[in-house]
Amino acid sequence: MRRKFIAGNWKMNLDRASAIALAQQLAERSSHIEGVDLAVFPPSLYVDAVAQALAGSRVAWGVQNVYHQPNGAFTGEISVAMVKDLGCRYAILGHSERRHILGETDEMVNKKVHAVLDGGLTPIVCVGETIDERESGRTMEVIERQVNGSLAGLDAAQIRRTVIAYEPVWAIGTGKNATPAQAEEVHLALRKILADRYNSEIAQSVCIQYGGSVKASNARELLSQPDIDGALVGGASLKADEFLGIVAGALA
User: Which residues pair with residue 4 across a beta bridge?
Assistant: First the structure.
């Protein structure tokens, strides 16, 4: 059975003091939790401060994005080596907001995936369809295109080290979420894509999270689906009670 993984994406929220306070609450209140992996993703400016607050706890940390080049004249970007220097274990790549607001392509995401893996970190690679794509019956087509493009060139060892997050764009920050059956259907399709590309054993080993208006009240039902291995949580991760309620749902 795959281990559950609950990750909190704080996006462009919180100031330094509130980020530290939230990290301290999570560190203190998660000390007794077993059987689930935990991570948070603060704004890059606050990673160092959050890392200090989480040091020695059960909660890991990561960044919401990196650049694929190791160094150079890339104003405003951060490299894998830089985030490793701050103790990061994970990097979120290809989040829908970066794809649809900032114009990131599958090819751009793919370069970052390789850079993160080469640097020894774990990428969380996001895929998901818009409401227009879902209503026109193109969900599986979009998912397969994003997986094939964003994860191009990964060998079996690399895909085992990669986390995939299915986040339907229409369910992010909207209060809507895919029903457990809808989410499970896409997660199962993702495993079939991986099985066709690698084999069924590898497909079953990859961690696939669900993201999209996950909260404590719906976590148990979503996370009890056989192919959903955890959650990439947005707004609900900004409050310790709500985030830990989702963790409890994963353990139920």
Answer: 36
The stretches of the chain forming alpha helices (DSSP H) are 16-29, 47-54, 80-84, 96-100, 106-118, 131-135, 139-150, 156-160, 180-197, 200-205, 216-223, 240-251
How far, in Å, are 110, 124, 130, 149, 243 from residue 217 at the CA level? 34, 24, 24, 34, 11
Indicate the DSSP class of residue 220: H
**pLDDT value at position 203?**
98
For the purposes of burial, counting CB atoms within 10 Å of the CB of 223, is it exposed (0-12), middle (13-18) or buried (19 or more)? buried
Whether the pLDDT of residue 133 is over 90: the answer is: yes
Per the structure block, which two tokens stand in for 98?
A: 């970066």
Burial label for 209, CB within 10 Å (0-12, 13-18, 19+), is buried
pTM for this prediction: 0.97
User: For residues 133 and 196, what is the distance between their CA atoms, to the nearest angstrom?
Assistant: 23
Are 63 and 29 in contact by the 8 Å Cβ rule? The answer is no
Contact (CB, 8 A) for 233 and 211: yes
Segment among 13-22, 46-55, 131-140, 141-150 with least mean pLDDT? 131-140
Catalytic residue ranges: 95, 167
